[in-house]
Design goal:
The structure holds two protein chains of two kinds. Helices cover about 5% and strands about 45% of the residues of chain A. Chain A has two helices and 39 strands. By secondary structure, chain B is α+β, with helices and mostly antiparallel strands. Chain B has three domains: about 30 residues; about 120 residues, Sandwich (Immunoglobulin-like), CATH 2.60.40.1740; about 100 residues, no CATH class. Chain B contains five helices and ten strands; from the N terminus they run αββαββββββββααα. In chain B, the strands form two sheets. Chain B has a five-stranded mixed beta sheet. In chain B, strands 2-10-8-4-6 form a five-stranded mixed beta sheet, with no helix packed on it. Chain B is elongated, with a radius of gyration of 29 Å. The chains are: A mainly beta, B alpha+beta. At the A-B interface, α1 of A face α1 and α5 of B.
């Protein structure tokens, strides 16, 4: 019995001692020295031009471990690329063959201690930029058969540029693609929208070509730029609406085709838009305001049509016109459209001229008017105000109006600019007065004539005379006219920049603030290139 | 007494060893299952004219699995359901191949060779198929599908018409022929918005067309239909067969 008690006691004692046991197994470790990645205070965000060399020199060490026991890996990812190992040495020095993108790539730097398998990571952001960058893109021809694309990067066209850095990169299309563009450029448009939507479309009287504006590499052209080959590539107009419908438009043979940007599935032009009543049409010009659906002029039927994104061309309902409407947008059969551009206070200026009913061309001495139509935000237009008439401005009393070749205006001023072969006039729409503001100088040649005129909508800065008579500086977007000229005797094309006074709306009188770029062929189309 | 000591020691030893027991983790054992990604496919040589000269074509029937992807190729076996009353095809009209699920994949294909015969010119035959369990896939027919392939050289309603009818309207053979003649296409291979790159697409190799392309072709056909009706004001284009027979063709 006594023995049984002893045994029972021993059992209980063992049980109690179990709970007294301190488990020190988890404390059986030794501290491991960390892997140190020392960037020397350098930034982890890098910016590099495509095809340039990226060099990052971190100092990596681990106390007690020799460098030979460390291994490295630099992996780049992001922007939908397959993650790619760039290097496996301590420092990175590599040519960046990545596509330029608006969003930075991710660069992961991994260091392993081979003796323990422990890894240390460091991440970097790598912004790959185009070597070509923002500026004025021009389509020029030297033989009237073929064209090429050149880029002017300058203080007035590019962000962060100083005048001393102004540079012209000529013939980039043929430089990269080893051929010229077949045809004389009639329209050019460079657009960047997100990662996938990046196209420079170049239209001629017989071809369509699309290139990547970041590196000028070829994308596609002619039939392959379309879902269904139109088999006719006579381009008369290009446009882009980033907000209302997110579409690029191209007019070929009078039909308006759209390319929907907000997708990664397919980036070709669709079949041409049909009208809402299935009536036929022949578009001459089109315009794309910033927030309203675009408008185009149907030369076949003498009417305005609204570009409803990728859906259709809406026929404006004449029955919904106000009783005192200035005009009926469906009854303009006597006119041809010379120009369309946005004005101040949500107005589109449409320059119409009486036409020859046989040729459809402007009639000799045909009356010229500005038919203003209303713009309304595309998402807030249940009453279908967009495209409805606002007023008619009679331009016929203004000097040289019958000689006018080009018309333009800004969406922040009540001014219209028109250019003849050698002069530019400014119409003050509030005062209804016109001033001759610019004459093409004869300093380079006596036969230099204007070949195009447009308000600048890209990046850059400009100088002008402020209200103290001193030099002021402001953004050139919407504040500068870009005028191209050509001298037949010199066989040389020019780009001239004319600041618009932010006080008077007139062309800057101080010629020191005018700019000039020369050495081109005949310039036939221009566009702004943004980053 | 000795016996008591022995019992006590035994209890003590058992108690001490009790804490040494290693508890195993019960692992989930899955049963890999393969099943058809669709249940029906129509095949017409009308849409594959070049194949008539060759004499046959190979259809890839989409497969999907439940369970995990594994790091080896797994075989899938299929057979014709000859005793099915809906199975009407003759033996020389088709032959069944062996399919597979590639390593680390969740989807695959199984080939079905279909042969062109003159009798297909005016008749439609059906092939009923089912998957057969094997060592790689003990489970089959997750949804109980028996795959049906309709085979013909006669124009028939394509299996994706429900996907495109919002753009082309009601089906008839005559209308479908008008669409194919207008577009120059042999089929309208649309299933989901982004075409081959659409994650909801059960067969990216077959259903390659995007929604944007379908809309483009619908616009092209609409212009052709308007043009036809303008030229035939007293006799607009009508459906010549099917449920809409005799009614004018309309598009949404």
């Amino acid at each position: 019995m006594k023995m049984q008690k002893i045994i029972l006691f021993l059992v209980c004692l063992t049980g109690f001692l179990h709970s007294c046991y301190e488990d020190k197994s988890s404390l059986n470790y030794t501290l491991v020295n960390p892997i140190n990645i020392d960037l020397g205070g350098a930034n982890t965000e890098y910016s590099v031009f495509a095809y340039d060399t990226l060099e990052i020199k971190p100092i990596v060490y681990k106390e007690g471990v020799s460098d030979t026991e460390l291994s490295y890996r630099w992996t780049v990812s992001g922007n939908y690329i397959v993650p790619t190992v760039l290097d496996s040495t301590m420092t990175l020095k590599v040519r960046v063959d990545l596509q330029p993108q608006t969003i930075a790539y991710n660069l992961l730097y991994e260091v392993w201690d081979n003796t323990t398998g422990i890894k240390q990571e460091q991440t970097f952001k790598i912004k790959v930029e185009t070597p070509f960058g923002s500026g004025l893109v021009i389509s020029e021809t030297e033989d009237e058969q073929t064209s090429d694309i050149s880029l002017i990067r300058a203080y007035c066209f590019s962000s962060g540029f100083k005048k001393a850095q102004d540079t012209t990169m000529r013939n980039l299309f043929s430089l990269v693609n080893k051929r010229k563009i077949a045809g004389v450029g009639t329209a050019i448009l460079s657009t960047t929208y997100g990662v996938y939507g990046r196209f420079m479309t170049i239209g001629t009287n017989s071809s369509v070509d699309r290139i990547d504006p970041f590196d000028y590499s070829y994308i596609d052209g002619n039939g392959s730029s379309f879902m269904i080959d139109p088999k006719n590539y006579n381009v008369t107009s290009l446009g882009f609406s980033s907000n209302a419908g997110c579409i690029e438009t191209i007019v070929i043979g009078g039909k308006l085709y759209t390319h929907y940007y907000q997708t990664q599935a397919i980036h070709t032009f669709s079949y041409y838009l049909l009208t809402s009543d299935m009536s036929d049409y022949r578009v001459g010009l089109a315009t794309q305001p910033e927030w309203a659906y675009g408008l185009c002029f149907d030369e076949m039927n003498g009417r305005f049509l609204e570009i409803q994104g990728t859906k259709y061309l809406r026929v404006i309902n004449s029955k919904k016109l106000e009783p005192d409407a200035a005009f009926d947008p469906n009854k303009l059969q006597d006119f041809t459209c010379r120009a369309m551009f946005s004005g101040r206070n949500n107005i589109t200026h449409n320059i119409l001229q009486e036409k020859d009913p046989v040729t459809g061309k402007p009639k000799l001495d045909g009356k010229i008017y500005c038919y203003d139509t209303k713009q309304e935000y595309y998402y807030n237009d249940p009453d279908l105000i967009n495209g409805m008439p606002s007023k008619i401005i009679d331009l016929n009393g203004f000097p040289d109006i019958q000689k006018a070749l080009f018309f333009s205006g800004t969406n922040n001023r009540d001014y219209i600019y028109y250019a003849t072969e050698d002069k530019i006039y400014t119409i003050n729409l509030i005062m209804n007065v016109v001033t001759e503001d610019y004459v093409v100088p004869t300093t380079e040649s006596s036969d230099e004539v204007i070949t195009s005129m447009a308000v600048w909508l890209g990046y850059g800065s400009m100088n002008f005379t402020n209200n103290q008579g001193e030099m002021g500086t402001t953004s050139s977007a919407n504040n500068m006219l870009v005028v191209t000229t050509y001298s037949p005797s010199l066989k040389e094309g020019f780009v001239r920049t004319l600041p618009i006074s932010i006080y008077t709306g007139r062309i800057e009188a101080n010629k020191d603030y005018h700019g000039m770029f020369r050495g081109f062929g005949r310039i036939t189309a221009t566009t702004s290139q943004k980053d | 007494m000795k016996f008591n000591v022995f019992i006590g020691c035994l209890a003590l030893v058992s108690f001490l060893f009790g804490s040494c027991e290693r508890e195993g983790v019960t692992m989930y054992e899955e049963s890999p299952t393969v099943y058809f990604g669709e249940s029906y496919r129509s095949y017409t040589f009308v849409e594959n004219m070049d194949r008539i000269k060759i004499g046959f074509d190979t259809i890839k029937l989409p497969l999907q699995i439940s369970g995990s992807a594994v790091d080896r190729v797994r075989e899938v076996v299929m057979e014709a359901v000859l005793d099915d009353t809906l199975h009407t095809a003759e033996a020389d009209m088709f032959s069944v191949g062996k399919g597979c699920i590639e390593a680390n994949e969740y989807k695959g294909y199984i080939p079905l060779r279909v042969n062109y015969l003159r009798v297909l010119d005016d008749s439609v035959y059906q092939i009923r198929l089912r998957l057969v369990a094997n060592k790689d896939f003990p489970g089959v027919d997750l949804y109980g599908y028996t795959f049906t392939v309709s085979l013909t050289n006669k124009l028939t309603q394509p299996s994706n018409w429900s996907r495109i009818k919002n753009y082309f309207g009601p089906y008839s053979n005559s209308w479908y022929r008008f669409i194919l003649e207008t577009t120059g296409l042999t089929s309208i291979p649309y299933w989901s918005t982004n075409g081959s790159s659409d994650k909801n697409n059960p067969d990216p190799e077959r259903w390659t067309m995007t929604l944007y392309e379908v809309k483009a072709y619908a616009a092209m056909v609409k212009v052709a239909l308007e043009d036809y009706n303008r030229k035939h004001p007293q006799d607009p284009l009508k459906h010549e067969d099917g449920e809409e027979k005799g009614k004018p063709v309309t598009m949404p």
